[in-house]
């Protein structure tokens, strides 16, 4: 295999891998911009993957499957919003609760929603169709960059969604409201903005996108259901939000880099590098790199006196009558 | 009719007891709905779970054996949670403990066999402390987000453990797992399957209770958790305490791994990441970070796990039911916490009625 081919294949694998991450990261950016930290992403993505898969399995309708994944994702993040906003619970344990409940329930239902012939298990079942790659004529023949034009509909949608999210957040009046709620909820409230309402809306939207991200895995990337199939991607998403410095446009960079590392790891394993480096080391390398990158970035950020700061009110509850 | 929340003058002790108990009940009710959806009779299922967890002496012993690492992990994360350091890495620190003791048991053969167990335990505890200490230092020195670092470190050490039991330390025969520890270095059993680790765990509960509630250090940790700025004004070093608390937290999680390895598995093998570290988070939160109450809560959590194993065997229901119920407990618990610090006022026709 020549180098050009290898890079094109790697980019294609990166895009396929990064799609699921990009949806969920975009969702978490929306949520965190309003000041709500949702650590429930891992659970929500897994529930989304399950909801999408089981709908596609039973109806064969992929679009209905996406809707179900979004609905379920929205519902789980609604629980998170209720805990953090209405009940003023600490956002960290609330998110952990969503992740624990979501992963538990998804794994439970994955062994109950399958056909009786398979012992009610969904694992090992196939869906009638999946989101396959659609090649755009001519464009997809370009070396390397052609990979960008031979992706699934889910990835093409991102080409629109990410610029839209950036434009919305930084160039529209409503986007300004969202940022104000996350930066300074008290001022926002005094301007007549309902902080709680905005936080509810964007937490739910964030969850819907995470559900969609989960469904990307079970309907396109690895069209199947497997217990715990998100394998920590929901946590990577939280790190990617930090790497993107809460800017929707930079979500692309983070997901491409992370998707690239993970894909490279797989292709290196396939290429027989495990003779030199044990496969388990390659397996945990994405997490190690995330850890090192997170630490490096936080330290640099501190030296530069917080130029990539998080939304000021992130993680804090807000009530008008609080003193 | 309108609702309004009013801050209480002091935390309500009645609510602090009522909320966790009610949460347990709510989670069982919601769990019943999950069971109904999946075509199972909830009464039958719960009865099977209770029978599976406490139904006979052997079953009770299994539940108690499971509750020992759970209790220790609950204590471990509880210490970090006291200063609002979100250690979700107890799972990895636990695995670190198992790696440590296995290393001694397998390679420190120059030691007299009577010393293998104590030295192995110490090294395991040390590994746990190091694995917990790294995120502690990162947070204290450069405020690197601890939820992510502790979590990433879980994946790293679990992957490393896999490499050890599948590859580097694999016993010559079989396809995974290290050689069993020498029999004379096992932690002895005291009642059926229940082993001496139960004493270590209970003594630690007493020590921790004393340290956290009766010493200046415990007082400092509490103060940092409640109000960082006030603590700093009082001259409490936040950096030092974060690192100390995380070393201790990691050490105790490591101890949990060490005890389970020395008394139950006698090797490093698949399944070492059994999820005790994550369940420990629920235990810490439900017990209100109180070591004594953690004892009861960890037995309940262990019962949910052994009970759901029984559920799988007798009713062919997925044993993930235990995880569903465990996860479900936290949601009403977090929602209810507000009533400990606030009271709900019901405003009816301009008259205020306190509920």
UniProtKB/TrEMBL annotation, chain B:
Its main location: membrane. This is ABC transporter permease. The keyword Transmembrane helix applies. InterPro entries: ABC_transp_permease. The keyword Repeat does not apply. Pfam families: BPD_transp_2 (PF02653). It is found in: Cell membrane. Keywords: Cell membrane, Membrane, Transmembrane, Transmembrane helix.
């Amino acid at each position: 295999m020549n180098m050009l081919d290898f890079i094109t294949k790697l980019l294609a694998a990166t895009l396929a891998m990064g799609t699921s991450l990009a949806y969920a990261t975009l969702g978490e950016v929306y949520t965190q911009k309003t000041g709500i930290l949702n650590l429930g992403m891992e659970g929500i993505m897994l529930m989304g993957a399950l909801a999408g898969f089981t709908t596609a399995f039973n109806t064969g309708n992929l679009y209905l499957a996406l809707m179900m994944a979004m609905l379920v994702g929205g519902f789980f993040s609604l629980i998170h919003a209720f805990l953090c906003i209405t009940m003023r619970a600490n956002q960290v344990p609330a998110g952990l609760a969503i992740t624990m409940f979501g992963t538990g329930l998804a794994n439970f239902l994955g062994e109950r929603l399958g056909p009786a012939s398979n012992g009610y298990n969904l694992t090992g079942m196939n869906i009638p169709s999946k989101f396959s790659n659609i090649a755009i004529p001519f464009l997809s023949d370009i070396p390397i960059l052609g990979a960008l034009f031979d992706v699934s509909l889910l990835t093409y949608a991102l080409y629109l969604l990410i610029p839209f999210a950036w434009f919305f957040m930084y160039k529209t009046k409503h986007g300004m409201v969202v940022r104000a709620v996350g930066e300074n909820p008290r001022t926002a409230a005094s301007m007549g903005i309902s902080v709680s309402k905005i936080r509810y809306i964007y937490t739910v939207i964030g969850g819907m996108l995470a559900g969609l991200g989960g469904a990307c895995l079970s309907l396109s990337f690895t069209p199947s259901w497997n217990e715990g199939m998100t394998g920590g991607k929901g946590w990577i998403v939280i790190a990617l939000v930090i790497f993107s410095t809460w800017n929707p446009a930079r979500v692309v960079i983070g997901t491409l880099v992370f998707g690239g590392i993970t894909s490279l790891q797989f292709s290196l394993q396939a290429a027989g590098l495990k003779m030199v480096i044990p496969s388990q080391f390659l397996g945990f390398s994405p997490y190690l790199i995330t850890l090192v990158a997170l630490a490096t970035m936080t330290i640099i950020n501190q030296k530069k006196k917080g130029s990539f700061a998080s939304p000021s009110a992130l993680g804090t509850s807000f009530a008008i009558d609080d003193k | 009719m309108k609702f309004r929340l009013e801050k209480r003058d002091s935390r309500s002790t009645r609510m602090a007891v009522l909320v966790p108990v009610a949460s347990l009940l709510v989670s069982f009710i919601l769990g019943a709905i999950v069971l109904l959806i999946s075509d199972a009779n909830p009464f039958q299922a719960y009865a099977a779970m209770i029978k599976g967890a406490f139904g006979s002496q052997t079953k009770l012993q299994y539940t108690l054996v499971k509750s020992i690492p759970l209790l220790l992990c609950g204590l471990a994360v509880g210490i970090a949670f006291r200063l609002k350091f979100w250690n979700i890495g107890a799972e990895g620190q636990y695995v670190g403990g198992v790696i440590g003791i296995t290393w001694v048991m397998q390679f420190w053969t120059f030691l007299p066999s009577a010393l293998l167990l104590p030295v192995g335990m110490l090294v395991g505890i040390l590994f746990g402390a190091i694995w917990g200490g790294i995120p502690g230092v990162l947070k204290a020195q450069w405020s690197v987000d601890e939820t992510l670092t502790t979590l990433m470190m879980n994946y790293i050490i679990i992957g490393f453990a896999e490499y050890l039991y599948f590859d580097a330390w694999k016993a010559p025969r079989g396809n995974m797992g290290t050689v069993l520890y020498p029999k004379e270095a096992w932690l002895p059993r005291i009642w059926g399957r229940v082993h001496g680790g139960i004493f270590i765990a209970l003594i630690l509960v007493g020590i921790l209770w004393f340290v956290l509630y009766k010493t200046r250090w415990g007082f400092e940790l509490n103060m940092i958790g409640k109000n960082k700025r006030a603590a700093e004004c009082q001259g409490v070093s936040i950096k030092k305490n974060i690192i100390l608390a995380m070393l201790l937290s990691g050490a105790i999680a490591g101890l949990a791994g060490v005890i389970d390895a020395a008394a139950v598995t006698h090797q490093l093998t698949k399944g070492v990441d059994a999820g005790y570290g994550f369940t420990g988070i629920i235990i810490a939160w439900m017990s209100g970070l109180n070591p004594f109450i953690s004892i009861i809560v960890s037995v309940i959590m262990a019962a949910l796990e052994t009970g759901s194993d029984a559920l799988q065997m007798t009713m062919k229901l997925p044993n993930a039911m235990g995880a569903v119920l465990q996860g479900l407990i936290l949601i009403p618990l977090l929602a209810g916490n507000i009533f400990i610090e606030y009271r709900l006022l019901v405003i009816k026709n301009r008259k205020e009625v306190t509920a």
